[in-house]
Amino acid sequence: MWLIPVLLMPKPSNPALVQTHVMFMVLYLIGFFLERKPCTICTIVFIATVFLICYSGVGNCIFWAPFCEADNG
């Protein structure tokens, strides 16, 4: 239940803020897992959900933005 806001948090539209957003998300998840210690099933379901969102090809990953990949290529 506490991990759902992580999936719904919008990415910044400004490319300069993407690294800050990624840092916040990673630190939030580390802090969450250290403090709350969710069950193994909840952790696996969350990781599977993030994996499916990130690799669905839609560009909705919570850790990076599609415009960053377009700039590098």
TrEMBL record:
Transmembrane segments annotated in the record for this chain: 16-34, 41-65
Cross-referenced InterPro entries: BCALP
Location (main, coarse): membrane
Subcellular location: Membrane
KW rRNA-binding (keyword) present: no
Pfam families in UniProt: BC10
Coiled-coil intervals, chain numbering: none
Keywords: Membrane, Transmembrane, Transmembrane helix
GO cellular component annotations of the record: membrane
Function: Acts as a tumor suppressor; induces growth arrest at G(1)/S checkpoint and apoptosis via RB1-dependent and p53/TP53- and NF-kappa-B-independent mechanisms. Modulates expression of genes involved in the regulation of proliferation, cell cycle and apoptosis.
Protein family according to the UniProt entry: Belongs to the BLCAP family.
Protein name as it appears in the record: Bladder cancer-associated protein
Originating organism: Cryptolaemus montrouzieri
